[in-house]
Specification:
CATH superfamily: Creatinase/methionine aminopeptidase superfamily
Number of strands: 15
Distance between the termini: 31 Å
Order of helices and strands: HHEEEEEHHEEEEEEEEEE
Helix content: 25-40%
Number of domains: 1
Shape: globular
Radius of gyration: 17 Å
Strand order of the largest sheet: 8-7-9-14-15
Length: about 250
């Protein structure tokens, strides 16, 4: 069952989202070539805890880190590792969650490290813009499929592909709640209603949409070795425009 949030719950999620936006902003400024993904994870966890919150992802389903750090062809769920070094020309997807007083926010950003090609920057920007195209359909009365269809059509018109094997999701007292929110035109899905909180997170590949899981059972990579980018925010369905909860004043989305 999908439960709509009360005003009190929404306020808690707004604060979780605000702190997560600040965390992403601060963490992105720290990430540079030569760092290990484990160091990125340590910095991210420290930032979250310094705000008096807990990292949502740490030990979630057994995940060993606080930040999913995915590089280049790694789509999502990159496990922080001392030996996995970020290099100039990489793109790095940072997926993080904040638990504030029992309520969660979830957001992801992909950042460019140093000198990357224009086509790589375009992949990152198209992924980000596909989120905004998608949430134009995140309105009470529409269906889940309307979000995914808009994302897919935009991404494919730009010459890229949308991952099928992973989706967005509901969020609230748990990181992952119903409903699933595909980034492509799948089933019609349920009708959206004011008070629902969902995470919309397009994962976009430069090549084909197929992915595989690595032997660590976490890291998802593109099947063809192409680059992948990820952009996500937690949003609130309202009677009008959707509200992005994972944002903070003065911090660009």
């Amino acid at each position: 069952m999908v439960r709509r949030k009360s005003q009190e719950e929404i306020e808690l999620m707004r604060e979780a989202g605000r702190i997560l936006a600040l965390t992403h902003d601060q963490l992105a400024k720290e990430v540079k070539a030569g760092m290990s993904t484990k160091e990125v994870d340590r910095i991210g966890e420290t930032i979250i805890r310094d705000y008096g919150c807990e990292p949502s992802f740490l030990h979630l389903y057994g995940f060993p880190g606080s930040i999913c750090v995915s590089i280049n062809d790694e789509v999502v769920h990159g496990i922080p590792n001392e030996k996995h070094i970020i290099r100039d020309g990489d793109i790095v997807s940072l997926d993080a969650g904040v638990n504030y007083r029992g309520y969660h926010s979830d957001a992801a950003r992909t950042i460019c490290i140093g000198d990357v090609s224009e086509e790589t920057r375009r992949l990152v920007e198209v992924t980000k813009q596909s989120f905004f195209v998608g949430i134009q359909q995140a309105r009470a009365g529409n269906h889940i499929i309307d979000i995914g269809r808009a994302i897919q059509e935009y991404v494919e018109a730009q010459g890229f592909s949308v991952v099928r094997d992973l989706t967005g999701h509901g969020i609230g007292k748990k990181v992952h709640e119903k409903p699933n929110v595909p980034n492509y035109a799948d089933r019609r899905g349920m009708k959206l209603k004011a008070g629902m909180t969902i995470a919309v997170e397009p994962m976009v590949n430069a090549g084909e949409y197929d992915v595989v899981w690595m032997d660590d059972d976490w890291t998802v990579v593109t099947y063809d070795g192409s680059l992948s980018a990820h952009y996500e925010n937690t949003i609130l369905i309202t009677d009008g425009e959707p509200e992005i909860l994972s944002r903070a004043d003065g911090i660009p989305l």
